[in-house]
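User: My notes are a mess, but here's the protein and guanosine-5'-triphosphate's SMILES. Can you give me a structure?
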Amino acid sequence: MFKKLRDKLKSFTDKASKELEEIEEEIPKKPKQKKIEPKKEAKKKKKEKKEKPRKKEARTPSEKEELFAEGRIGKKLREGRLEDLLWDLEMALLESDVALPVVERIKTSVKSDLLGRKVRRGVDIESAVEASLKKAITEVLAQNPVNFDAYVKSHEKPVVVMFVGVNGTGKTTAIARIAHRLKKNRLSCVIAAADTFRAGAIEQLEKHSERLGVKLIKHQAGADPAAVAFDAIEHAKARHKDVVLVDTAGRMHSNINLMDEMAKIKRVAPPHMIIFVGDALSGNDTIIQAKKFDETVGIDCAILTKIDADAKGGAALSIAHAVGKPIVFIGVGQEYDDLIMFDPRWMVERLFGEDT
Ligand SMILES: Nc1nc2c(ncn2[C@@H]2O[C@H](COP(=O)(O)OP(=O)(O)OP(=O)(O)O)[C@@H](O)[C@H]2O)c(=O)[nH]1
Ligand SMILES: [Mg+2]
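Assistant: No problem, the inputs look usable. Here's the predicted complex:
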C-alpha cells in the first residue's frame, strides 16, 4: 500500500535532513579558537566527531514538543536549497498522481514550517522534517469527516444511500460490504438493484443478497432505475427497514444522457446521502470524475476502492482537499470485511511507518 509515495516522502525527508546538517557545520562557533588549535588536536577532535556522530545524540521528539528553536542556535535550512528540495517534492508528488492544488498546499505548509526556522538542538532533524510533512498531509486529508455508522444510527429511518461512479470502480461490491457492516451493527437494510443497464448487474446483487441474507428489490433488466429505487424506499418504509442502499449503473461522467438519468433517480427517490465510489488506481482521473458527479448530483463523500493494490496513493491523498468531500470508507481487499472506515491518521501511519 502506497509504497511509491512512501519511498518518495522518505527520500525528501532524508535529503532535507542532510541539508539541515550541512548548514549546522557552517554556523561559526568561536572560529578564532579553532584556527589556533594545534593540528594534532584538531585531527583528534575530528576523529572523535566521526566516531560519535551527532545523529546519535538526537532523539525523536514527542508529538507536542517544540521542534523548532526561534532565535536560538540550531540547524537551519538555506533558502535556495529549500526551493530545490520543494521542487523535488513537487515532482515526487505529481509522479504519485497527487492533484496539483494538493501539491501546492503541501508545499506551502512545509515551506512555512522549515523556511528560516531552526531545528532545536538535540532534536532528531529527520523527525522535524517528517513532522512538518505529516502535518501538511494531515491538513489535506482532514475534511469534515463523515462517520457513517453514527450518521445512520442517529438519522430518521429509513436512511437512503445512493452509490454513484464510473464503470467498474466497486459500487456493487461496496454496497454488499456495507450491507454486511449494517448487519453486524444490528441494522436492517434493503438493496435496490437500480443498475438495470449492465447485463448481469442484477444477478451480481442477487448472489450477494442471498449470501448476506438481505432483501433485494429488483425489476426487469432495462427497467426504469428510478422506479426500482422508489419501490425499495416504499418497501423499507412498510417493513421498517433502517437503510436503503441504491446501486446504480456505472457511467462515464462525459455521457450526458446517463448523467441525466442519475439525476432523475435522485429526484424520484431522494437519497439522504450520495456516495461517490472511485477506484484509487485511477489517480487523477478519479478526482476529475468525483468533481463531475458532484456537479451533476452533489456527492456527500467518497469511497476509494482497491487501496490494497495502490502504490501511488495520489487519489487517496488528493480527493478530500481537491473535491472538498471526505473519504468515508476505503476498500482494502477482496473480503466483505475489507471495507474500512477512513481515518487520516491511518493513512499518515502508512505513509511514514514501516512497509505494510
Ligand atoms: N482488490 C480490490 N478489488 C476490489 C475492491 N473493490 C472492488 N473490487 C473489485 O472490482 C471489480 C468491480 O467491482 P464492482 O463492484 O462490480 O464494480 P461496479 O462499480 O459495481 O461496476 P459497474 O457496475 O460495472 O459499474 C470486482 O472484481 C471487485 O472484486 C477492493 O477494495 N480491492
Ligand atoms: Mg455495479
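Residues 51-57 have pLDDT under 50 and may be disordered.
User: Great, I'll file this with my notes.
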